[in-house]
Amino acid sequence: MSNDSFQRRLADAIRAQLLTRGGDVPDIDVDAAVAAALGITDEAFEQRLTDAIRERVANRREELPDVDELAQQVIAAASDPQGPQPEFASLWDFVSEWLLPTYRRIIDHPNFAWCPEWWRHPEAVVRLDALWRSWEHLRREPGTGMSVWLKDHLDHHMPVLLSQDGPMHRCKPTGHHERALEPIPSDTPPASWITGDVAA
Prior knowledge:
Blueprint: H1 3-20, H2 30-37, H3 43-46, H4 51-59, H5 67-79, H6 91-102, H7 122-138, H8 145-162, H9 191-195
């Protein structure tokens, strides 16, 4: 049986099971669900499929797994409002348990700035939070997921965070400097500009 034929059977099985649920029907794109389950494409839905389902399909592609059983698993994955659970429960856990133990540098250097109380610096928190969330997403990507994270996220944000001109300027690895950086100045524009009543 061809992959296209199995794809149609799986889609039909999912639709049939959804019809039997009456009012308890998750709002899912059946075609996207089938494509993700078969490892074809659809990043948005694939993020919500469990690793176990994808591994099962990959390992049994030639055996053509039972469509009804697989349809139940796909529907369950799509019905889960939480989706895949994060590896770390909080930003603090990610930074303290994974990022800092993994990303090791000699930071006691005139060209670097780091604050052990990094959570006092709003921009540092925003950038570290972005690193955490992108890591949680890309760690599930097979193949080049981690390479993409290292190149596009870690290698971008960490030099900014550690820069003497960065958000932790004045701080040292030995302690936080109480004199925070001043916000970049901005004058208040006319009220018409704020409300949007201004010509382009």
